[in-house]
Prior knowledge:
Blueprint: H1 2-40, H2 45-50, E1 53-62, E2 70-80, E3 83-84, E4 88-94, E5 105-112, H3 114-121, E6 125-127, E7 132-134, E8 152-157, E9 163-164, E10 170-174, H4 176-183, H5 189-193, H6 204-214
Parallel strand pairs: 7-8
Antiparallel strand pairs: 1-2, 1-5, 2-3, 2-4, 4-10, 5-8, 6-10, 8-9
Helix pairs in contact: 1-6
Amino acid sequence: MKRSVLIGAFVVVSTWASQAADATKQLSAAADVINKLASSHQIPSSLLSQAKCVAVIPQMTKAGFMVGGKHGSGVVACRAASGWSGPAFISITGGSFGLQAGAEQQELVLLMNAQGEQELKSGHWDLGAEAVAAGPSGETGATTSTGWKAPVLSYSNSSGAFAGADIGGSKIGVDTGEIHNTYGESASLEGILDGHIQAPASAQKFISALQQVAGR
Length: 216
């Protein structure tokens, strides 16, 4: 009996450690995307400084079970009273992403204005045609007429260059399991993004990168 209890405890601890490692890896990958974004200067700095929330999907991949479908997991943080919130874990899926042609894997960055922040915090979000627009590139692109009218501006990168991406028709979901594994069972998406829950140490690299590229 004692042996069974010890084995069970070992399995629980091992599972938790594995999940924590996965979350840390995802946060590190998201920070790398932000650092790459900062060095490229391809997303207008004015839009980054205005963004209320920034979501990063380090790896969008083609989903074999859906024709033309794509899926990815990532993190999102929002501006709070004390600076950027801790990152919450999300997923994004879609049947027909108009991302850069020919790429098997791509990085995705989403900038959200106040309306986008409100929609995000409500939970599961279907990104209809009016909710998301391909973001303009370059500093001159910030003044284009398509600009900041859409709640979400989207960018993808598969070859070192960030460019506007059409992700209309996709869905953003909350990764509740990863949130609970990282922040505890009582944690919620809104509580994290409002800055009411302290970010884990593993998130500091991502938050620092975000502060550097988008300000506090």
